[in-house]
Every structure is written in structure tokens, then in C-alpha cells.
């Protein structure tokens, strides 16, 4: 964060300069971390937040977005710790990347918990979402609003996937979350943790066979160009985004600026969620036009994956919190 004083002077008529009143307006610049650039909805959410804050503060507050996890040297799982310690002022972050420090965020990574967008909203916009924000707050970061990275779909270079058996033996890149390792290991795959920066080279060389990501990432990153010819729409988990602020930075702001910053985050998040969802059909069409073979699971095929990953819940529900998981399941059922 940088602070810059703006001096003001009054120039009198006839070329005489008078002393300015002893006041100055303070402008403040804050760093904002994201994993993806504004070529993706995730990065666009951060840029929209910066735009709204600058506009509504009339330039007093500036958010400078640093994409590609560059503030943590590309290691996205270090973002929360860096933010808590003050190395990063703000972030628009994935719940996955913060889950090692905030166990409750693993809720969103439970396989096949959320079947559709209404289920995501039932969690994030209700009391379950409020409890998750409280958990983030207790861990040292102030959460302001939700965004969305979307449902994560599975691609690979070997064959179509429409059953758990098809996943067996595949080397699949996953993010740095133990829950992901457990889910894919349960399905018989060979999951490998690596950052997104390392994933595309590994796909190119064939070091890994597949990856899982939202459609927007598959499309913009042109994952089809690195051998990912088969894509399965299985909606196995969704990836909400969190707009957050370092606690010290948050407390340094006036109440007025806190309100401005949070409302801008809420508005940017709502804008990005609507935009992302509205673009899904066109994104999928573009992927199909490039020759990718897309498999959409029948209800029976989907249920086979649900059954095959049920044991993951036995291990992870106690870690996340049995009451929180039950509340989320109830909210989804009532949607």
C-alpha cells in the first residue's frame, strides 16, 4: 500500500501566490491479488472492483490488480497467508486456494454437493455463507463479497469419460488441496498437485493426461491445444470467489470507505457472476466448434460418480464441520 499526499495551492490575482490552507487530501493505493488475468471472468471481477472503487471514491482509493498470483511467485496456495501477514492488501480469491488455512471452505470442494447454480446461491447467499465468512474473518482476513469461478469440468487426452471406471489410471492435474487428491484417488486416478502456471507445460509434454477447471478457463487458456480432446461436463464441484481485505488495511479505513469498498465488491461480484453464467452456452459452443468431444452425463451416469465418491464425505465432513455440511445440504434441498 502506498500513500500519496496531494498538495493544494491558491494563486491570487496579479501573479501573487498566497499560502494554501494547511489541509491535504490523501490518496491510497492497495495491491489486489488474483490467480487469473482479466482475460478470464476471475480477473475481470478484480478489475471491476478496482474500477468501481476508483470511480466512487473519486480517485482517493486505487486498487492495483496483480494477476497470475505474481505477489506469491505463482504459488496460489500461499495467497491467504501472505494476505494475513500484510504482504498483500486485498484479493479476489478462490475458496480452493484458501481452504488449507480455512477448513470450512472445503465445503465447496465436496464432490457433487452442488448440482446447479441455484445450489451455489443457496449456500453463499444464506446463513451457511455467513458462517463461512465468519470463519474467514476469524482466520485473519476480512471477507466482503462472493464472486464465481464456476463448476469445474474434467478433460483429458485419452478417451471420453462417462463412468468412474473411465477415470482409473489417468494422471490428472489438481490444485493444491488434499481434498482434491482424495476425490481423484477414490476414483482410481493418479492425481498430481501443481500450480496452473505449471499445468499447461505438463499437459503439452504428456506428463499428465488431464485437468479439471471451469469452462471459461478451458476456453480462454485454449487447453484443447495441449491435447485435451475430451471434456466431460460432470459439475463435480463449484469454485466460488471471495473478495477479501487484510485486517490491518480494513481497520485503517474510515467507516465511509469501508462501506464504499464492500459495496463495490458486492456489486463487482454480482456483475461477474451474472456475466459468467450468461456466457456459458457460448463458451461451450466455441469449445465444441474447435473439435473437442464433449460428454454430458445422464442422471444415471452422474449418480454413479456420486456413489463412487461418497467415502470422501466420511473423511472430510468432520474436518469441515458436520453442522456446516448438514446446513448446506438442507439449504440445497430447500432451494
From TrEMBL:
<feature type="signal peptide">
    <location>
        <begin position="1"/>
        <end position="24"/>
    </location>
</feature>
<keyword id="KW-0813">Transport</keyword>
<dbReference type="InterPro" id="IPR004682">
    <property type="entry name" value="TRAP_DctP"/>
</dbReference>
<dbReference type="InterPro" id="IPR018389">
    <property type="entry name" value="DctP_fam"/>
</dbReference>
<dbReference type="Pfam" id="PF03480">
    <property type="entry name" value="DctP"/>
</dbReference>
<keyword id="KW-0732">Signal</keyword>
<protein>
    <submittedName>
        <fullName>C4-dicarboxylate ABC transporter</fullName>
    </submittedName>
</protein>
<comment type="similarity">
    <text>Belongs to the bacterial solute-binding protein 7 family.</text>
</comment>
<dbReference type="GO" id="GO:0055085">
    <property type="term" value="P:transmembrane transport"/>
</dbReference>
<dbReference type="GO" id="GO:0030288">
    <property type="term" value="C:outer membrane-bounded periplasmic space"/>
</dbReference>
<dbReference type="InterPro" id="IPR038404">
    <property type="entry name" value="TRAP_DctP_sf"/>
</dbReference>
Amino acid at each position: 500500500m502506498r500513500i500519496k499526499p496531494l498538495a493544494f495551492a491558491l494563486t491570487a490575482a496579479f501573479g501573487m501566490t498566497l499560502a494554501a490552507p494547511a489541509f491535504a487530501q490523501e490518496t491510497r493505493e492497495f495491491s489486489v491479488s488474483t490467480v487469473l488475468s482479466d482475460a478470464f471472468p476471475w480477473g475481470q471481477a478484480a478489475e471491476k472492483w478496482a474500477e468501481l472503487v476508483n470511480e466512487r471514491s473519486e480517485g482517493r482509493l486505487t486498487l492495483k490488480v496483480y494477476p497470475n498470483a505474481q505477489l506469491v511467485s505463482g504459488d496460489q496456495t500461499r495467497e491467504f497467508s501472505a494476505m494475513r501477514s500484510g504482504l498483500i492488501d486485498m484479493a479476489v480469491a478462490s475458496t480452493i486456494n484458501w481452504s488449507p488455512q480455512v477448513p470450512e471452505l472445503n465445503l465447496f470442494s465436496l464432490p457433487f454437493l452442488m448440482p446447479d447454480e441455484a445450489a451455489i446461491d443457496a449456500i453463499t447467499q444464506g446463513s451457511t455463507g455467513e458462517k463461512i465468512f465468519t470463519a474467514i474473518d476469524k482466520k485473519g482476513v476480512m471477507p466482503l463479497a462472493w464472486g464465481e469461478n464456476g463448476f469445474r469440468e474434467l478433460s483429458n487426452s485419452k478417451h471420453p469419460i462417462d463412468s468412474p471406471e473411465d477415470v482409473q489410471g489417468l494422471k490428472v492435474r489438481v490444485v493444491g488441496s488434499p481434498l482434491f487428491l482424495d476425490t481423484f484417488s477414490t476414483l482410481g486416478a493418479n492425481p498430481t498437485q501443481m500450480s496452473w502456471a505449471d499445468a499447461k507445460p505438463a499437459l503439452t509434454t504428456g506428463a499428465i493426461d488431464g485437468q479439471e477447471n471451469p469452462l471459461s478457463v478451458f476456453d480462454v487458456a485454449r487447453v484443447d491445444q495441449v491435447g485435451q480432446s475430451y471434456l466431460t461436463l460432470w459439475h463435480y464441484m463449484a469454485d466460488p470467489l471471495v473478495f477479501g481485505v487484510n485486517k490491518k488495511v480494513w481497520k485503517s479505513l474510515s467507516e465511509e470507505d469501508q462501506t464504499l469498498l464492500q459495496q463495490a465488491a458486492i456489486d463487482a461480484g454480482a456483475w461477474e457472476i451474472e456475466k459468467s453464467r450468461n456466457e456459458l452456452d457460448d463458451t461451450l459452443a466455441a469449445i465444441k466448434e474447435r473439435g473437442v468431444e464433449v460428454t454430458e452425463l445422464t442422471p444415471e451416469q452422474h449418480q454413479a460418480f456420486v456413489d463412487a465418491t461418497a467415502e470422501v464425505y466420511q473423511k472430510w465432513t468432520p474436518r469441515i464441520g458436520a453442522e456446516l455440511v448438514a446446513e448446506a445440504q438442507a439449504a440445497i434441498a430447500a432451494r
